[in-house]
Amino acid sequence: MNWLLVIAGAMVGAPLRYLTDRAVQARHDTVFPWGTFTVNVAGSLILGLLTGAVAAGAASSQVQLLVGTGLCGALSTYSTFSYETLRLAEGGARLFAAANAVGSVVAGLAAAFAGAAVARAVWG
Known about the structure:
Blueprint: H1 2-26, H2 34-55, H3 61-75, H4 78-90, H5 94-123
């Protein structure tokens, strides 16, 4: 049953990632991968919130599988982040590559901590 929860979450997360990435990137005329940055930070925020909810007993392990592993696993994408950072560096946009690497890690961690803090405030 657990694997069905992961699959169901991923069935929502993967198209959501693609559609969000395309919508965000279409609004920015730059080589910086804003779409991937956005889905990764959003996934980190959701995962932080979910982790806090599970720790507080407000969400079950099944919800963690559905939303955390399934949805967030398919929504966020380390491989695309790595590929786009490498592509920027190889294309001569080293400043954008560095900004993407540092900004993604910092923003992702900040979003996860913010999500956990919100969960503590709500379900504390």
